[in-house]
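Researcher: Please translate sequence to structure tokens.
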Amino acid sequence: MITKDITEHKGKKTNVIVPFKNNIFKIKINKSIEIVIVHNPGEKNFHQDNVGIILEENKILKILSQRYSEVVITKIQHKKDLDRLLKRKPDLVFSGVKYFNFNNDKVWLNDCLEAYGIRYIASSRAALDNESDKNKAKKLIVKANIKTADFFVATPDQHEHSSSIPIPFPLFIKPVKGGDSRGIDSNSVAYNFASFKKKVLEIKTKHNLSSLVETYLPGKEYSVGIFQDSIKGTLRAMPIQIIVKKNINGHRILDFNVKKDDEEKVIAVTDVKIFKKISKLAKEAFKALGGKSLGRIDIKMNERGVPHFMEANLMPGLRKGYFYRSCLLNLDMNYDDMILNIANTGLSSS
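Model: Translation complete:
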């Protein structure tokens, strides 16, 4: 088996064919990579707002060490740890960390890396800001003339009467920020004013967030993995369909418990027309949000089978989640090759 890699010779990028057997490379690329992590104060996989991707750092270390000459794990606990990293200036930082909290001072990792000319995986801080605020993301999507459900942002004391709600029922209600379907459950679909008020209040009480309220889309659900070509910069779309059983209200909702318990079914998209339509929408959405290297765009159909943008994840999980399964089902790409491709794309990015 052979693989194509990128290296530099006299300042020019060139293709190098690197033969390997059983994932052991005969020639290692002379690059330094630091896998940057932060302390997790809770149990394994404990949610941290400042971490976009929970890494299996030891597994990734083993995989990258097969191809690259210098790979280490770096835990950042203090500002001085980050300063040392910037001074070392590795060829690539492989990390899912968004920012650090140093004495209540928020320091964004990718901002620092860009200032020092250090390459990294995933998107810039500006793109991550675009994606994390679902209201902002949808406004950018609308500006780019990409289809998305009608929407508005609501707080518990904002609407006293149903006549003030700008879009018709049924509505879909979720927190304006946050991933992993947190705050989404069987009560997220509202058919009347009372259920709307109840859900908006619940999101504010439990998550201290405003609600993003959308026209409910009852059709099929998809997620599209995006890989940026390391040489040309073009985007490859990798759609998958997500199938969820009906809940007690008869709705198919990819809620927090479904994801947590891994109850959904993921299959390849075999309909050519649907494949093309959702791939096109996903690429356009990725560009509109300023995405780089890799990401995931979630799409849902309306009652007529027209695809609509739902939300984006520009730091998708790299374990056995939707991004990995989109690589596997579309490219027959195993976990090791996915990690190596992400690193290769990061190293060749500007």
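Researcher: Any highlights?
Model: DSSP finds ten helices and 18 strands in the chain.
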